[in-house]
Design goal:
Layout (H helix, E strand, L loop, with lengths): L5 E8 L3 H15 L22 H12 L8 H4 L2 E5 L11 H4 L11 H11 L5 H14 L19 E8 L3 H4 E4 L12 H6 L8 E5 L2 H4 L5 E7 L2 H17 L6 H11 L18
Antiparallel strand pairs: 1-3, 2-5, 3-6, 4-5
Helix pairs in contact: 1-5, 1-10, 5-6, 6-10
């Protein structure tokens, strides 16, 4: 259905799922993001002002990240996703088919603090209380919250996979071919040419700029998710509905405007109208 106009990437994750889901619920309430299909990996627009595309990310990698933690650097993680170029890719480093049930996740990430920081950036009051409510809601629907002060999922299968379709005309703007840990794989650059060619996709990583302005526009990017935990897979749409109900602060125009300004780093975008849910999807 999509292979002609779209290139596809696969992102494996586990503990970050709750953050992705909360961001999707906020984006659904404010911008009309279609959260029933997928979560939203990144939400805060201001984090992309200095790194809006793959070219700027590559420059930052070479100047800031290459000599230290590479793509494990927190500033890299804020804007980019590690992905594989095929569902059947067996490497390098990761095979999605093998890690799907457990999901890929770094252990040195303060997930609960990131959640609370997100809510604070969005100008929600009583952040800790709201975070507790979100964790309890997630537990009821089978999502693993063990890194947020909650419980592990009963199935012991916390993995998820995000399927990301990027319009082929935007591939080089939003992605680059990568070796493990983020260095550019020059042999597969430009990535669009490699993906459009007659090349095997059984091996190969990429880094994708998770810019919300593109991720929320279905004309640019389309996403779908799958979860190893059967309960959460079946309950995800209901979970999104409950999350949106928890975000009661977004019901008033003044609060919505304040949250949007927080997402954009203190400046309202010129198209914003607090009395209407602006569709960005």
């Amino acid at each position: 259905k999509y292979c002609g106009e779209w290139a596809v990437f696969y992102h494996s994750y586990s503990h970050a799922a709750l953050i992705y889901e909360v961001q999707a619920a906020i984006a659904s309430e404010l911008f009309g993001f279609k959260s029933q299909y997928a979560p939203l990996p990144r939400l805060l627009m201001n984090e992309f002002y200095d790194t809006p595309d793959a070219a700027s990310l590559i420059r930052r990698f070479d100047s800031e990240f290459a000599g230290s933690r590479r793509d494990h650097d927190a500033n890299f993680r804020r804007v980019a996703l590690s992905t594989m170029c095929s569902l059947s890719a067996k490497g390098p480093e990761m095979c999605l088919a093998k890690v799907f049930v457990s999901g890929y996740s770094c252990k040195d990430v303060p997930f609960r603090q990131i959640l609370e920081n997100l809510l604070q950036s969005c100008c929600f009051p009583e952040v800790a209380k709201l975070a507790d409510g979100i964790v309890k809601c997630a537990e009821r629907h089978g999502l693993d919250t063990s890194m947020f002060g909650g419980r592990a999922c009963k199935s012991g299968l916390p993995g998820h996979a995000l399927q990301i379709f990027i319009r082929r005309s935007l591939v080089d703007r939003l992605a680059y071919a990568a070796h493990p840990y983020g260095p550019v794989d020059e042999e597969r650059m430009p990535l669009s040419s490699w993906l459009n060619g007659d090349n095997p996709c059984t091996r190969g990583q990429a880094r994708v700029i998770a810019h919300p302005e593109h991720m929320m526009h279905s004309s640019n990017v389309r996403m779908y998710t799958a979860s190893a935990d059967r309960k959460f897979e079946q309950c995800r749409v209901a979970f999104q509905k409950e999350l949106r109900e928890l975000l009661t602060e977004l019901k008033s125009p003044a609060a919505r405007e304040q949250t949007v300004a927080g997402i954009y780093g203190g400046v309202l975008p010129p198209w914003w109208d607090a009395n209407h849910r602006k569709t960005r999807a």
